[in-house]
Amino acid sequence: MSVDPSRRPAVRASELPTRPLGRASTLAMDFRLQRADFGLAVKVEVPLEGVTAVFGASGSGKTTLLRAVAGFERPDRGRVVAGTDTWFDSATRTDVPPHRRAAGFMFQDTRLFTHLDVAGNLDFAARRAVAGGGFDRADVVTALDLEPLLHRRTGSLSGGERQRVALGRTLLTRPRILLLDEPLAALERERKADILPYLEGALSRFGIPTLYVSHDIDEVARFADRMLLLSAGRVQAHGPTPQMLERLDLQPAMGRFEAGVLLAGRVLRRDPRLHLTWVDVGGDEIAVPEITGAGGAEVRLRIRARDVALATRRPEGISIRNVLPGTLLELTPGDAPGFVEALVQLRAARIRSRLTLAAVEELGLAPGMSVFALVKTVSFGA
Amino acid sequence: MDLGPVWLTLLLATVTTVGLLLLGTPVAYWLARTKSRAKPVVEAVTALPLVLPPTVLGFYLLVALGPLSPVGGFWLELTGEALTFSFSGLVVASLIYSLPFMVQPLASAFEALGDGPFEAAASLRASPLAAFVHVAVPQSARGFLTAVVLTFTHTIGEFGVVLMVGGNIPGETRVVSIAIYEHVETLRYAEAHMLSAGLLAFSFAVLVAVYALNRRFPPHVG
Questions:
Q1: Are A233 and A61 within 8 A, CB to CB?
Q2: Which of A113, B71, B145, B173 is least buried, going by the fewest C-beta atoms within 10 A?
């Protein structure tokens, strides 16, 4: 579980109103694309605001979807419409070439130009920026802390530095939509932690609508407003991130150890001596390891199902700090034989628990029962 | 010693190399990027001078460039000079003869770039032409170096085609290789030695310089 001071108001309901395709301020993707060993068929519309995570297992079509939006893959038929701009429409034989689409694509392998230094790479993009204001080269250099790198050769950069330069270069074209293809996948965990704040800061500061391909649920939970879940070349579900993380039926696609919930909360108080912070989540108080952020700050808590145990009576003499009363809503088969996923209604929030079938039978768990959710404090470590 | 053939040879090689840079680069680029079915045919045509005996090539060029042919006739009308047995004719013959030495290294270099740099350029709103000029060409510096050197040295070394199309006219078509041949035929071995040793030393020096330079031009991968 990770605890993140949220940079935007918590949850917005109904992110995906049904509108006619092509309505301004949405990206409409309605196309089919068949390759020798793979097919992609999508019909979905996402708002052109905030961050939309394109999530799914490898081979589910995430990157192909992004490449079709950018114009690097040509669908067999259908449409891609960004706001009022039709980028692809097989009916009218419209296929705007990639360099005329106001889409900035950041590649997983960065593809920095090796014959140019960092400044040269940035200038290449800045010279060709979409007309308009908002921000300039200096803003991007500052936001991503690129000043010390400007005169370095691209070959001498570390993995994290390359990603920062690539992101800066893409931002400098001032795209109307940012397409990030697993920008952190090539990095080790520590490097990821280094670049995440930059990425998060840049996405929020420059406010460019973003499609963010990822197979890392922690990244998605951290800064995606909504999720588009792809499975075998189809859109399996889409919606606001917290609701998506709560849905039990999506578990097979989301992966075994990633099952969990994302809760929006507000910092209540901190105890510096115990290094604990209490967060109010819809009327329940949850203690988490001390986080930065003043009282009243919005935070997102992610609680994995495997870190939640259930009890039918309030346990005593137990080391677990967070014991939350609730009602068992739903039991579904787990991701592996012998496991069961439980959804528990707390005061306002919902929490998920991964149980063994043996425990369910022994405790006689059934929907409607009153239970206590035990959330291991240790599980709050980032 | 008569240095005429040396200067003539260097002039021919320079003109041929510059001409092939202009003609061969687009052909190589097309070959590297195209998905057309015509590609194998074009590839074969550009490789033909590699496998044909120079005499065959020279014979057809002689026929094609002669004053009675459409091309030769047109040139004669235009300039008042025949293409065969002239320096201009030698240039045309060399352009064709050395074509593979320009096109093949360049096509390999462009092909080695893959789609990556082109997609990156397009994602940064660079047109295909801008991607070629500002990304593909600089990233293929090593390929250009190889192509230019091979074309230049190969043109210097050509013999059969020159003899067929140009003959042996001092100051016009008498290049070093022809001069050496004539010196040997007339048993003037001292002069033959001078030119041969000069050509050997020059070729060796150029190749050493290229390999040394190549180490400084790392291939642009990734």
A1: yes
A2: B71
Question: Is A5 domain-assigned?
Answer: no
Asked if residue A42 lies in contact with residue A234, where contact means CB atoms within 8 angstroms, the answer is yes
pTM: 0.74
Instruction: Please give the pLDDT value at position B68.
Output: 82
As a whole number of angstroms, the distance between CA A46 and CA A275 comes to 40
* Residues A274 and A149 reside in one and the same domain: no
- The torsion region of residue A182 among left (phi > 0), alpha (psi -120 to 50) and beta comes to left
C-alpha span between A174 and A134 (Å, rounded): 8
Query: Are the C-beta atoms of residues A8 and A207 closer than 8 Å to each other?
Result: no
d(CA A245, CA A317): 32
* Domain count of the fold of chain A: 2
| Contact assessment for residue B9 and residue B179, using Cβ atoms and an 8 Å cutoff | no
Q: Count of residues for chain B? A: 222
Which residue from A98, A129, A130 is facing B122, i.e. has the nearest CB?
A98
CB pairs A-B closer than 8 Å: 68
Q: What is the pLDDT of residues A144-163, one digit of tens each?
A: 999 999 999 998 998 889 99
B128-159 per-position pLDDT tens digit: 999 999 999 999 988 999 999 999 998 988 88
The range of the structural domain enclosing residue A123 comes to 15-246
CB A210 within 8 A of CB A200: no
Please indicate if any CB of chain A lies within 8 Å of the CB of B124: yes
Length of chain A equals: 382
- Angle A189-206/A159-171 helices, nearest 10 degrees? 20
In whole angstroms, give the CA distance from residue A261 to residue A300: 10
* Interchain CB distance below 8 Å, A173 and B125: yes
DSSP letter (8 states) at residue B133: I
pLDDT band at A222 (very low <50, low <70, confident <90, very high): confident
ipTM score for this prediction: 0.77
Burial code (b: 16+ CB inside 10 Å, e: under 16) for B193-215 equals eebbeebeebeeeeeeebeeeee
Contact A227, A235 (CB under 8 A): no
A123 and A36 both lie in a single domain: yes
- Smallest Cβ–Cβ distance between A111 and the set B120, B131, B134 belongs to B120
Split at pLDDT 50, 70, 90, the class of A380 is: very low
Could you tell me if A339 and A248 are in contact, meaning their C-beta atoms sit under 8 angstroms apart?
Answer: no
- Residue A329 has which token pair? 């809503």
Contacts of A97 in chain B (CB under 8 A): 122, 128
> What is the rounded distance in angstroms from the CA atom of residue A71 to the CA atom of residue A88?
8
**What is the pairing mode between strands A94-95 and A226-231?**
unpaired
Q: Are strands A51-55 and A210-214 parallel, antiparallel or unpaired?
A: parallel
